[in-house]
Design goal:
By secondary structure, the protein is α+β, with helices and mostly antiparallel strands. The chain has 2 helices and 7 strands; from the N terminus they run ββαββαβββ.
């Protein structure tokens, strides 16, 4: 699940109830530095957690502790609409530095 070109960042896509997106973002913001949470598709209620690879275990532990409050499902190979119409494959983003040129 490592991001191509940015191996130290892990992307974890989740589908959860739309009303819980802000709550999950708030929880991860309170654990400063564990993950950046972005909403990928509001209509489908899909978010991505951008996690430093060495903190993936901690991020997954936080998610497991949330499971009793927020029913979430990991989405592998996410393809979404991106909100602008049409489909697109969501590619990774290096956090804090530009992606290497090919």
């Amino acid at each position: 699940m490592s991001t191509a070109g940015c191996p130290d960042v892990v992307e974890l896509y989740l589908r959860l109830p739309p009303g819980d997106i802000a709550y999950v973002k708030f929880i991860f913001e309170s654990y400063e530095g564990i993950a950046v949470v972005r909403t990928m598709d509001r209509a489908a209620a899909v978010i991505v957690l951008l996690i430093a690879a060495d903190l993936e275990g901690e991020a997954r532990a936080i998610l497991e502790s949330l499971r009793t409050e927020v029913p979430w499902v990991e989405v592998r190979g996410y393809v979404g609409t991106g909100g602008g119409g049409g489909s697109r494959v969501v590619s990774g983003a290096c956090v804090g530095r530009p992606r290497p040129k090919k």
